[in-house]
Amino acid sequence: MITYLTLFTTASVLGLSVSDRRNLAAMLGISLFLLWFMGSRVNVGCDFTGYYFRYVNTLPGLHLGEILSRQEPGFELLNGILKTIGAHYMWVNVCASALMIVGYFIFARAHINPVMIMALLFPVIIVQLGMSGIRQGIATAALMLASVSFLKGQRLTTALIILAGAQFHSSAYMFLPLAFLAGRRVNAMQIGAAVLLLSPLAIYLLSDRLDVYTDRYVDQTYGEVTSKGALVRYALIMIPQVFFLFYYKQLRAQFPQVYGLLKLFVIISFCLLPVAAYSSIALHRLNFYIMPFSILSFVYLSHAIAPKGRVLFTRMMPPLAYGLYQLFWFLTSSHAQNCYDPYNSFSLLIFAGG
Q1: HSE of 276 in the Cβ direction (CA atoms, 13 Å)?
Q2: Confidence band (pLDDT; 50, 70, 90) for 227?
Q3: Which of 103, 146, 154, 155 would bridge 161 by S-S if both were Cys, CB 3.0 to 4.6 A apart?
Q4: Which SS3 state, helix, strand or coil, does residue 41 take?
Q5: Is residue 44 left, alpha or beta, with left meaning phi > 0 and alpha meaning psi from -120 to 50?
Q6: Which residues contact 267 (CB under 8 A, 6 or more apart)?
Q7: For 189-203, what is the mean pLDDT?
């Protein structure tokens, strides 16, 4: 626990102290550290063993026809390449982490206070997702990357990046309608048009997984599964989204270039209320896609509404909220205690002669 809290605190202090004009060195340093921290972990993350045995059972040789016929061929191709060249399993995590970090880096650098954005990604998006469910971690990073193209009005690029992410976790297809909205004014009519136009394509692309998702999240064929942590994370997501309703005019006036993106994900966040009431395990999946954009709202709000003389105090609110969440998670979650603590790394084992 101390390892993770120390890293988050250090990154948050950097986020409060490093100016936007001098963030490149800090961002590169954080990214390189994360590549080691995420990529070289051993027996860290609740899905570590599952992915390890998946790699062990992967046959060497690039059987491209078979790989491309599978539901999520991107991850299968990554495994196949590494297994064929005889790479250790650690390199699966290194390569997956590299893909995620590229998404984090470009996403954060496209906005104000990128170091703080990276810090706020750490407790959930990096630790709970990127260091466990690496397939959805890559898909989430792809959505973050696609949002940068969204801001530039590049519809085709936005769609292609989302499609690429869906090759690692097919749930990302749900966000394909966002491509239609790139470069357009975000309102209820535009969102409705995007959903009507591109949802059939998204459903078609998801078709191989729809039965699985229906059994798991709707019919609950495998038994009723709940995730109390998902409700806590959703509450964390909603903190800035609620404040957005009161301060949207300030955000629109000061940050017009990102206002449409923030507004879009505020709407999506509120639309998840019925999901939260119906299936917390479905909410668990969706939270990861929405949280990076809630973090953006938090950071932009902390700049837009800070009163004179209390700027630092206001900017401390996002890391305080995420820091308290991380502490609460480690103190109350068996997953945190069993899957993440203590942290260990292949490089540390080699250094120790283990």
Answers
A1: 17
A2: low
A3: 146
A4: strand
A5: beta
A6: 186, 191
A7: 58
User: What is the DSSP code string of 331-346?
Assistant: HH-HHHHHHTSS--BH
Q: What are phi and psi of 225, to 5 degrees?
A: -115, 130
Q: Cβ contacts of residue 268 below 8 Å, gap of 6+?
A: 290, 293
Rounded Cα–Cα distance for residues 109 and 107 (Å): 6
pLDDT score recorded for residue 219: 42
pLDDT at 220: 42
Are 58 and 79 spatial neighbours (Cβ–Cβ below 8 Å)? yes
- Residue labelled with tokens 């959805």: 136
In degrees rounded to 5, what are phi and psi of residue 345?
Answer: -140, 150
Task: Give residues with Cβ within 8 angstroms of 338, minimum separation 6.
Answer: 46
Band (pLDDT 50/70/90 cuts) for residue 19 is confident
What are the helix and strand counts (H, E) for the chain? 19, 0
Output the CA–CA distances (angstroms, integers) from residue 66 to 86, 199, 246, in the order listed. 20, 28, 52
pLDDT-derived band at 60 (thresholds 50, 70, 90) equals confident
Tell me the backbone φ, ψ of residue 41, rounded to 5 degrees.
-60, 150
Residue 262 clears pLDDT 90, i.e. is over it: yes
Query: Which of 280-283's residues contact partners 24+ apart within 8 Å by CB, and which partners?
Result: 280/226, 280/227, 280/228, 280/230, 280/231, 281/216, 281/217, 281/225, 281/226, 281/227, 281/230, 282/217, 283/227, 283/230, 283/231, 283/234
Question: At 191, is the pLDDT very low, low, confident or very high (cuts 50, 70, 90)?
Answer: low
More confident residue, 191 or 288: 288
Structure token pair of residue 178: 């966002």
Single out the residue of 313, 308, 300 nearest to residue 253, CA to CA: 300
Does the reported pTM lie above 0.85?
Answer: yes
Alpha-carbon torsion 28, 29, 32, 35, what sign? Answer: negative
Contact 259, 270 (CB under 8 A): no
Judge contact between 193 and 178, C-beta under 8 A.
no
Position 11 pLDDT exceeds 60? yes
